Amino acid sequence: MDSKKRTIRVLVGDFKDMETDIGKALEDDDDFQKKPDRTIFIRPELVPTLLSCQKLRLLLRLRGEDLNMSELAHQLRRKIESVSRDIAQLEGYGLITVEKKGRERHPRLAGDIQIII
After folding, report:
1. How confident is the model at residue 35 (pLDDT cuts 50, 70, 90)?
2. CB atoms within 10 A of CB 77
3. Average pLDDT over the chain, rounded to an integer
4. Where are the domains of the chain?
5. Looking at the domain covering 7-116, what would its CATH class be?
6. pTM listed for this prediction
7. Phi-psi bin for 13: left (phi > 0), alpha (psi -120 to 50), beta?
8. Whole-angstrom distance, CA of residue 91 vs CA of residue 23
């Protein structure tokens, strides 16, 4: 990851809510005045898919740790195939990046993640 700290904002709500309730709340909150590097909008029914307990545990484990896929799976007590599938999905949403070091793949958070419901 580059030296600049990136911010990724995940907004949960119906699309009509994005412009009204959530937009107004963000305008009024000084902590969220800084424009994020990336914003992801998701409908409430997709939250269990994108942010399941397993995926949240995975994201939390990646904070500040440099683990390869096998080490990550071991620490999470999950099969590497399941972790790889979650990594691919989170990478597709832009929440993580995967760096290759020789034959090993090292997932990393793509930046600070803010989840707003």
Report:
1. confident
2. 7
3. 82
4. 7-116
5. mainly alpha
6. 0.76
7. left
8. 26
